[in-house]
Design a protein that fits this description.
The complex is a heterodimer of chains A (about 675) and B (about 260). By secondary structure, chain A is an alpha/beta fold. Chain A has a 7-stranded mixed sheet with strand order 5-4-18-17-16-6-7, sandwiched between helices. In chain A, strands 23-27-24-26-25-28 form a 6-stranded mixed beta barrel. With about 260 residues, chain B is of the alpha/beta class. Chain B has 2 domains: about 1-105, no CATH class; about 125-230, no CATH class. Chain B has 10 helices and 4 strands, in the order αββαβαβααααααα. Chain B has helices at about 1-10, 45-55, 70-80, 95-105, 125-135, 135-145, 155-160, 185-195, 205, 215-230; strands at about 15-20, 25-30, 60-65, 90. Chain B has a 4-stranded mixed sheet with strand order 2-1-3-4, with helices on both faces. Chain B is globular, with a radius of gyration of 19 Å. The two termini of chain B are about 35 Å apart. The chains are: A alpha/beta (about 675), B alpha/beta (about 260). The interface between A and B is large, with 49 and 40 residues.
């Protein structure tokens, strides 16, 4: 008899809740919340309570496979790795290293992501390494690097408890980050004023003080409108603006045309509500902003993030406790995958690949000549694959065949590749396209760290063995690096990998497994004695002075037309997670949200003769899907919402791959669509 | 602790809380193993944990740190045959003053105190009193406001020591629609009424509720009704719930162990 309670970190959203996995004789039998965990406070959401359910599912990939004659056939690790190395070497020799792209993973650990980018840069010789942050917060990274010098949450999760005003936009916090939502509820119970700006009613907006519904794709208009009201009513934090920021005059010039009347015409937000929200946010001392995909997933996402930064700086609501601008990261380790350098233009710690000093530093550490210009982003790599310039991809734990925009074209691009290797835990839609499939260990089967949305570095502890011959991704990456003839892949544990990463990443210099085993440390943590940093930009911004960016509203790339009269917006629900590979194999979660649906406003539905529960076809210029209509007054007129979890009616068949010019994030939140009875 | 469990009471295993990784963790250890730094100040619901791991411990006696409410929960389990009474060893923990206050607990001292100092029960649950003074409409509004915060995590059932049906009525679509958040009032009413003759007021539902809905107060109000209507209080190994009877007045057998 062996019964263990293994403390580890949740594999779902970026909140970073810790809990115990209950293990009995090698079986995962349950989840127990950790009462002393300072993030979760001994509470979990429904996904957390079911985080054990998919781990030992019979569908897990257990053996390496190679595609032959269209069929995947079981092979040995030796054969699979030989094939990968042979193909990667052949393609590199024939087309050059930049014909290969590596996709790192926000579901893998910091150590693994560090190895993935090292594999791309040092072993293959390309900066073509990216991951799904491109689809979620790429614009946060680019926007906040410009405004503040650091693209992460400025404050910490526990601080929501004591906020007096919380402005939430583009985040369905209670469903997508339930335990952060719970903190907001606590603030609400203590009397905080909650303002939600969202095209949909969300569980949080329904109990908020102020709920504003904007038309999707009009956010800069209402943000600039709020800033104008704040300036006109003398609510600017003059001292903060003078001492801590620059370029305020340019901002003033830009926002002066955004009158509340004009904003109402553009966004649909009644002007009185906008004025009330602006006053409330500006006048409250402890006012926090939280935002997510509703801000970032636009073809002007970088500008949108800069506009949010303007709003925080104009009021001086930054650099103090329970204030700040707080992007909520949606994957367990999307913050860490960015920190660890899983980005085509940045080494670990946001050091630029085209900065000669940084390049020299990494060349010295890794003993290799490194490419000096930024590589391809995920979204561009797909376009280049279509154009025949990218010939091979190695994908670690991403299901691009559901998660990426405009799946019809993406599928063609993937099929254009000469070679695709995929490491994953389940036979995902992307695995179905692979030439070589590698079975990977999941979060419960390995050690390593995740960095949560508030920069806390949290340990994974191994609870059970991986199924069959599955291996942790860090072992796979090391093996691949060595077989490709590169030195620097001789690691015997994730702790050793972290030691190397910490030595090259200033924000992580004080991090080691021994320290984080017992305490919560948040980066920047520059030395072994440093206790980590809760609040960023307290004395000065990371880049010195905060920079106001004069940004204007621009319409989305695709607006409703006669043929496609609706605005389609996409997102998550509480019970499913991303492409559903894990949650749809968790019976209690699948029970709650078993099938795809489109939310449509009651009046729109009535006009089209569509009844609740009826099947409808939703189409855009790029594709069509059939699913159930959910007739509701929880979405504004003229807009429809589809969760993107469901392969059988993949919302991303419809979405637009139009990109933000700086961050290359696709406009997943707005495209034109039509609805008809199926 | 090891001495009481293994030497004095002849247990083979011990379920306790101890310090691990800078946190307090539940742990099931066997005779001869080091107990580590035992912690009694963090109220893990060990009986719920016991229920999950019980079938994986095929042999021997299991000692558990039991508060008074845990004793009562065990009584409800053994009555129904979920746990074999002969295999259980209770190590009685008297709750601290702070814990008694937090639970507004009216019965805080275990039948045998092995750990901690006995404290007086809390006089009243203030919120219950306040609610009792409200008009029905005010009371309803209070609960509506609370239940609107519910995010359907199922913590109140997941962590409950006396919530042990194989098929949960709250996961049955006839009663609770899928996907609805917040779930309707009936979700909470079904749960509380289903537990009306079992709940031993350990407060774990309230402690683990992310929305901090005062579920223990809801329980205390229903417990008062149950006592008034039937003179029944759960947690006594010798009594049987009055609701567990047939219309002929005989006790139900076989039909539904769970109810």
């Amino acid at each position: 008899m062996s019964v263990k309670h293994v403390l580890t970190t949740c594999p779902y959203c970026g909140t970073g809740c810790n809990f115990f996995l209950q293990v009995a004789d090698g079986r995962l039998v349950g989840v127990v919340p950790c009462k002393t965990d300072e993030i979760s406070l001994g509470r979990l959401c429904i996904k957390g309570y079911n985080a054990h359910a998919f781990v030992q599912h019979p569908d897990r990939l257990k053996h390496p496979m190679i595609r032959e004659g269209g069929q995947l056939r079981r092979v040995t690790w030796e054969q699979a790795m030989d094939r990968i190395v042979k193909e990667i070497t052949r393609i590199r020799d024939k087309y050059g290293p930049d014909s290969i792209a590596v996709l790192a993973s926000a579901k893998c650990t910091n150590e693994e992501n560090y190895l993935f980018q090292k594999l791309a840069r040092a072993a293959i010789g390309t900066n073509n390494v990216d991951h799904c942050a491109r689809l979620c917060h790429a614009s946060t990274v680019s926007g906040l690097l410009f405004s503040f010098g650091s693209g992460a949450m400025t404050n910490t999760i526990p601080e929501f408890d004591n906020a007096e005003c919380i402005l939430i936009t583009g985040s369905n916090t209670l469903e997508a980050h339930p335990m952060i939502g719970a903190r907001m509820l606590r603030a609400l119970d203590k009397g905080a004023k909650i303002i939600v700006v969202d095209p949909r009613e969300t569980p949080l907006s329904r109990i908020s003080h102020l709920s504003l519904h904007q038309r999707p794709g009009t956010d800069i208009s209402w943000i600039n409108g709020m800033i104008k009201i704040i300036i006109d009513e003398g609510l600017v934090n003059e001292e903060f603006v003078k001492q801590r920021t620059t370029a305020f005059d340019e901002l003033k010039e830009v926002v002066k045309d955004y009158t509340a009347e004009k904003v109402q015409a553009t966004t649909g937000i009644p002007k009185e509500k906008l004025v009330e929200a602006a006053r409330l946010y500006a006048r409250t001392d402890k006012a926090m902003i939280a935002y997510a995909m509703g801000i970032t997933q636009h073809s002007n996402g970088t500008n949108l993030v800069k506009a949010m930064a303007n709003l925080a700086m104009v009021t001086g609501h930054i650099g103090r406790e329970s204030t700040g601008l707080n992007p909520l990261r949606g994957q367990c380790n999307v913050q860490g995958a960015c920190d660890a350098g899983g980005l085509p233009n940045l080494f670990p710690g946001y050091q630029r690949v085209d900065d000669p000093e940084s390049k020299a530093k990494f060349e010295k550490a890794w003993g290799k000549q490194l490419p000096g210009s930024p590589g391809l982003t995920l979204t561009c790599a797909m376009k280049e694959a279509m154009a025949g310039k990218v010939k091979a991809m190695i994908i670690f734990g991403e299901n691009v065949m559901i998660s990426d925009p405009d799946l019809g074209h993406l599928e063609e691009a993937i099929e254009e590749l000469e070679f695709l290797a995929v490491a994953d835990i389940f036979p995902s839609e992307t695995v179905q396209k692979a030439n070589v499939v590698l079975p990977a260990a999941c979060y419960a089967e390995k050690e390593g760290t995740f960095t949560s949305t508030d920069r806390a570095i949290r340990l994974l502890r191994k609870a059970v063995d991986p199924p069959g011959e599955a291996r942790p991704d860090w072992v796979i990456a090391c093996d691949m690096g060595k077989r490709l003839g590169s030195s620097g892949f001789d690691f015997s544990s994730p702790a050793e990998v972290m030691d190397e990463m910490a030595s090259l990443t200033p924000q992580y210099a004080g991090i080691d497994f021994g320290r984080i085993d017992k305490q919560v440390l948040r980066w920047p943590c520059p030395t072994k004695e440093h206790q980590g940093t809760k609040i960023l930009h307290t004395q000065k911004f990371t880049k010195g002075l905060g920079v106001f960016a004069p940004v204007h509203h621009a319409p989305p790339m695709e607006e409703p037309s006669e043929d496609y009269p609706f605005i389609l917006t996409t997102g998550r629900n509480l019970f499913q997670y991303h492409t559903g590979t894990m949650t749809r194999r968790s019976p209690k979660l699948e029970r709650e949200a078993p099938e795809p649906y489109v939310e449509i406003n009651k009046s729109d539905a009535k006009r089209l003769g569509i009844k609740d529960g009826e099947r409808v076809a939703v189409s855009s210029k790029r594709g069509s899907i059939t699913l159930k209509a959910r007739v509701t007054d929880r979405i504004i007129l003229g807009s429809i919402f589809i969760p993107f979890h469901y392969a059988e009616a993949a919302a991303n068949r419809l979405t637009n791959a139009a990109l933000d010019p700086i961050a290359h994030i696709p406009e997943l939140k707005v495209c034109a669509a039509k609805v008809a009875k199926a | 602790m090891a001495k009481i469990a293994f030497d004095e009471r002849g247990a083979d295993h011990l379920l306790l809380m101890r310090e691990e990784h800078g946190n307090v963790a539940p742990a099931l250890i066997s005779k001869g193993e080091d107990v580590g730094d035992v912690r009694l100040d963090v109220p893990y619901q060990l009986i719920t944990i016991l229920e999950t791991v019980y079938s994986w411990v095929p042999k021997g006696k299991i000692a558990v740190i039991t508060r008074r409410c845990d004793e009562k929960a065990l009584a409800e389990l053994t009555k129904r045959g979920y746990v074999d009474e002969k295999r259980m060893v209770n190590i009685g923990l008297a709750c601290s003053k702070e814990q008694v206050a937090m639970c507004r607990c009216s019965d805080p001292v275990p039948s045998k105190v092995d750990l901690g100092e006995p404290n007086k029960p809390a006089p009243i649950d203030e919120l219950s009193e306040k609610l009792a003074r409200m008009t029905p409409d005010e009371r309803l509004q209070f609960w509506v406001k609370q239940f609107r915060k519910c995010n359907k995590c199922f913590a109140c059932t997941h962590n409950c020591p006396v919530c042990f049906c194989d098929d949960c009525v709250l996961e049955e679509r006839t009663f609770v629609a899928e996907q609805s958040i917040p779930p309707g009032l009936s979700f909470h009413m079904i749960r509380s009424y289903h537990l009306i003759d079992k709940c031993i007021e350990c407060g774990e539902c309230e402690r683990s509720c992310p929305a901090e809905i005062p579920l223990l107060t809801l329980r205390k109000m229903l417990a008062r009704d149950m006592k008034k209507a039937y003179g029944f209080v759960p947690g006594d190994p010798k009594t049987v719930s009055p609701l567990n009877t047939t219309l002929e007045g005989e006790q139900m057998e076989e039909e539904c162990d769970e109810c």
